[in-house]
Amino acid sequence: MKKLTAIALVGMICLTACAQEKKAVPAMKIIPQKTQPAAPAGEEISYTVSGTCAADVKMVYVVDPSNPRNVLDSIAVTNGKFSYTGKAAKNDMRNIHDGNKNMSFIIDGTPVALDLVKENLSGSALNNKFAGYQQKMKVFADKQQALIEPFMKAREEGKSQEELQAMVGKIQAELEPIQKEETALVKQIVKENPDNVIPAFYLPNLIYECELPELKEMLSDKYAYSSHPLLARLKKHIADEEKKQAIVGQQFIDIEENDVDGNPHKLSEYVGKGNYVLIDFWASWCGPCMQEMPNVKANYDKYHPKGFNVVGLSFDRAKEPWVKAIKEKELNWVHLSDLKFWQTIAASTYGINAIPSSLLVDPQGKVIARDLRGEALGKKLAEIYGE
Predict the structure, then answer these.
(1) Across the chain, where does the E strand assignment appear?
(2) What is the tens place of the pLDDT at every residue in 133-166?
(3) Which of 28, 33, 151, 212 has the fewest beta carbons under 10 Å from its own?
(4) Strands 334-336 and 309-314, how do they pair?
């Protein structure tokens, strides 16, 4: 029952999402492309799934939960009923999708009966437990979907960028408490199921909701789900983040980009010159970036008289919106960009695959912190400047 999570919703709200890696959106038109998912370790067993769906449905699809666009097979529906037998590794998972509603189940050798109308299932004790969690998670998915629908409608109606952006803050504010509740439930699910694979289905939802130490602990080898293939993306994320964190304690890396007038400048002209500098990776099209800007500006205005500086490295691809955002938001610090979107040298040099992101550099050019946002930035600067 994977639907739009808050992270995916925010990505859609940003129009051009603020990260290169997006969560797949399973509420989609199914286009059968039979492929094979990554197989988990374990013996291959047969499984049988039967069920009911809406009377007008002609076909349902067997989907790989790790990639809802990966259709493994199709099942003909007769008078709202279907049945299917397949083979897969024990403890692997499958999702049955009718193009609108869906349910996931664990392959454990016990037949599964699905009701896609009510989005429920019955099977082994493990799958019954799994179904209960899916019902609980559906509450959050429905709330999130209801919040995003007015935005999607406005976009389809051709509302201006300004009108759409005006909707972003309100939607994100309403999404935040829902996401907190959902995150708490996922953590509860993980805690309650150390001896089975159910957590593997939900842990990817925490990819941007937990700090690395907490994520790594939840993926410890002591848990039964730790080697499940559904966790591959989360493990890659952790590895990538650890690689990015490795720059903390190292000297900044010099790059050259143009200012708003087209004049080339090196980062070393502003960094490592005796002051603390925030290297801010952002873009005018990125909703979360623009939401964070008042915080960056407030800290800049407060601490700039004491020597604090900001250098903005933009991921924009057009000059006009970049310059417009700088002027309208009164971002009165140095701004550089090569206007190459995700192909910008800033991204490849510093391994940035999601924005907003930042590096705090000390007067000697050493990176001392990364991704300080919200209160964390102000707290760190207060430590540095004594207030």
Answers:
(1) 44-52, 59-64, 67-76, 81-89, 93-97, 102-106, 112-115, 120-122, 256-258, 264-266, 277-282, 309-314, 334-336, 357-361, 367-370
(2) 999 999 999 999 999 999 999 989 998 877 887 7
(3) 33
(4) parallel
| pLDDT at residue 68, as a whole number | 78
pLDDT of residue 118: 92
What is the pLDDT of the chain when averaged over all its residues? 88
Distance separating alpha carbons of residues 197 and 94, to the nearest angstrom: 13
Of 215, 360, 217, 202, whose CA–CA distance to 296 is shortest? 360
Model pLDDT for residues 17-58, shown as the tens digit of each residue: 355 433 322 333 333 444 444 444 468 999 999 999 999 999
What tokens does 311 get?
């250098």
Are the CB atoms for 182 and 5 separated by under 8 Å?
yes
CB atoms within 10 A of CB 123: 21
List phi, psi (to 5°) of 322: -60, -55
The first and second tokens of residue 86, run together, are: 């397949």
Going from the C-alpha of 108 to that of each of 36, 42, 135, 186, the distances in angstroms are 19, 11, 20, 22
Which residues, including other chains, have CB under 8 Å from residue 110's CB and lie 6 or more apart?
123, 124, 127
Between CA 201 and CA 113 the distance in angstroms is 19
End-to-end CA distance of the chain: 49
Map residue 333 onto helix, strand or coil.
Answer: coil
**Burial of residue 258, with CB atoms counted within 10 A of its CB: 0-12 exposed, 13-18 middle, 19 or more buried:** middle
What 3 state SS string does 115-156 have?
A: ECCCCEEECCHHHHHHHHHHHHHHHHHHHHHHHHHHHHHHHH
User: Shortest CA distance to 344 belongs to which of 20, 10, 14?
Assistant: 20
Q: Name which residue leads in pLDDT, 99 or 11.
A: 99
The residue to which tokens 């990817």 are assigned: 204
CA distances from 346 to 250, 290, 296, 364 (A): 16, 19, 19, 20
Residue range 316-354, pLDDT digits in tens: 999 999 999 999 999 999 999 999 999 999 998 998 888
Q: How many Cβ atoms from other residues are within 10 Å of residue 219's Cβ?
A: 21
